[in-house]
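Protein folding task:
====================
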Amino acid sequence: MRVRAAVLARSGLERPYARSRPLEVLELELEPPGPGELLVRIRAAGLCHSDLSVIDGSRPRPLPMVLGHEASGEVVELGAGVEGFAPGDHVVLTFVPSCRACAPCRAGRPALCEPAAAANGAGELATGGRRWRRDGGSVHHHLGVSAFAEHAVVAAASAIRVDPALPFDVAALFGCAVVTGVGAVVNAGALRPGERVAVFGLGGVGLAAVLGAVEAGAGAVIGVDPVAAKRELALALGAHSALDAALDPVAAVRELTGGGAELAVETVGSEAVLAQAYAATRRGGTTVTVGLPDPSRLLTIPALGLVAEERTLRGSYLGSAVPERDVPRLVGLHLQGRLPVERLLTHRLRLEEVNEGFDRLAAGEAVRQAILF
């Protein structure tokens, strides 16, 4: 079938992207779903910093590529051997499909699925190969999803059925921002009721972490960001304090908490901000990072404190989640009114406005934006 999709052919172009146009909306040929695959009509796709890092070249990926990894849609067609889905099902797409057989998957850590990581790095589906074609050649998949398109073929393992009562534009956010942010707090951070949480970076993932901390019963939630509008939104979502990142947030967090937060979460993708989050964590506390810095960047922290202060520093990918378990749980909390995820959506776009959307994201002028199809 012929499908309109936003294709990245070259990374590292200068901003503004509204002028340089790194993403071009083209008509591609999409092959039908093969064994173990689904054809999904994409209904909404979120713009995430993980997409931006491919556009600006800080996370190299094979090109050309149909970008987008945070999405919701409707199942159109099933490939051979697919069970558990039917045409018309509403689905959220996850960018780490679990093979259920490798060592991390067997250990209950599907976010670290080894075959999925290899396929994502190669721009292929977890089922093998590519389904996009243009001018006789293939076009790569982004993280097994390629959501900036009217339709996509995905591995069935990349899809999670969700309640059809959930609007598509809100549903898309559960595929990355929500599961990553909430998971950083409740899965990786193992927050206990009454503990204090500091969230460094109040984009979509950071504000989802705020929502998760509030829902989990944090004694105090402190947001840190340089953008006043994001600090105000954090307060509206239940944060107890919101600090300007330019005004020594480490000292402020330590003062507000009497020595540091039990849990600090870094969502920016900056080693400097991660060092701040670590410094704002109290003795015996945990620092969780979900940001994706440039691979060349290095973190420097006082090594002695890891032992003498019994600190924990850990990474969290996809919120250390089990998506088929956690996404429906989080959707249920949202439908009960306990996770107001819809408030993270600040802009709704057409596919043709995708470059302008990434300008807005890079400038810190948006929380979460969704392309609606």
